[in-house]
Amino acid sequence: MSKKIAIIAAAAMISLAVLFALSVKIAATIIGSGDAVLTSKEGVGLIEVKGMILDSKETIRQLRYFLKQDAIKAVVLRVDSPGGIVAPSQEIYAEVKKFAARKKIIVSMGSLAASGGYYISAPATMIYANPGTITASIGVILKLSNIESLMDKIGIKSHTLKTGKYKDSGSPLRDFTAEDRAMLQSVIDNTHQQFIKAVAEGRKLPLEDVRKIADGRILSGEQAMGYKLVDRLGTLQDAIEEAGRLAGISGEPELILPPKKKMHYMDLLVEGAEGTFNGPLGRAVGGMKMMYGAQ
After folding, report:
1. pLDDT tens, 176-185?
2. Active-site hit among 89, 108, 115, 137
3. Of 58, 65, 199, whose CA–CA distance to 123 is shortest?
4. What are 182-241's pLDDT values in tens digits?
């Protein structure tokens, strides 16, 4: 009987493995078969940054792709984001700055381009926003929770071994001390200064002018233009046409999208694992993320 059960179990495992392999193959086909060859079409490239900024790799890949295309005379970066994690926002900022030194890059702000969404926009050649776009929110936020009392109620005890008094600062499993607060506040203050400096350099504004409005406040596109955080009010189409003019393209420029990202089977497996540990499970295990976020 046990031999029969073992055979059935083995067959089930093999079936699951085959189904998984087929699923990965189908997903890879849907996502795309690879990068396109160099384009010969002359026009304006379009890159979109939507939602939370959690990773920089895809935006950087697209910027570098268009930078290599001689036929692409300028790029429109469409930003519709409430911000995100500090480091990826800084990486995209650096890449936009490099791009702007060689080709024109026009930012078109959608409904929301705040905090990290504004950070990545700052070094562009020109920034367009709709009058009602929500933008600015120049600030840093770090959210922490404490579940120590909850664990006591359900009878769970936690024990921590560490090499220094700050190693578990911000842990949800113990009290947040004054020393923890002072240490983490100093990190946030330093990161905030980095944000202010990046905006001042990107927009070519006096540091003190940026500091006056770098208190986390949000601004409409119209208000932001008054503070010189935005150059012009206009739509995505206005930004595309401006990019064409700045690039010296006569008539309406052709809009060119970047090629789809090539995905390998291992990429899918790795991203699936990252999603697990960055998602609900990751939050349950613990972690600390400093955000250029609107809230």
Report:
1. 899 999 999 9
2. 115
3. 199
4. 999 999 999 999 999 999 999 999 999 999 999 999 999 999 999 999 999 999 999 999
Q: Which residues constitute the domain of residue 70?
A: 43-267+287-293
Whether residue 130 is contained in a domain is answered as yes
Q: Which of 41, 57, 143, 167 is catalytic?
A: 167
Please indicate, yes or no, if residue 273 is contained in any of the structural domains: no
Q: Averaged over 250-261, what is the pLDDT?
A: 87
What separation in angstroms does the CA of 6 have from each of 10, 15, 18? 6, 14, 18
DSSP state of 52: -
* Banded model confidence at residue 125, pLDDT cuts 50, 70, 90: very high
The residue written with tokens 């240490």 in the block is 183
Q: What is the mean pLDDT of the chain?
A: 84
H-helix segments, the chain: 2-31, 57-68, 86-100, 116-119, 148-153, 178-203, 207-213, 221-226, 236-246, 265-278, 280-285
What is residue 277's predicted lDDT score, i.e. its pLDDT? Answer: 42
Confirm whether 169 is a catalytic residue. Answer: no
Does residue 22 lie in a domain region? no
Whole-angstrom Cα distance, residue 56 to residue 161?
Answer: 34
Higher pLDDT, 12 or 48: 48
Would residue 115 show up in a list of annotated catalytic residues for this protein?
yes
CATH number at residue 64: 3.90.226.10
Domain count along the chain: 1
User: Could you tell me if residue 23 is inside a domain?
Assistant: no
pLDDT at residue 246 tops 70: yes
Tokens for 47, please give them.
């890159």
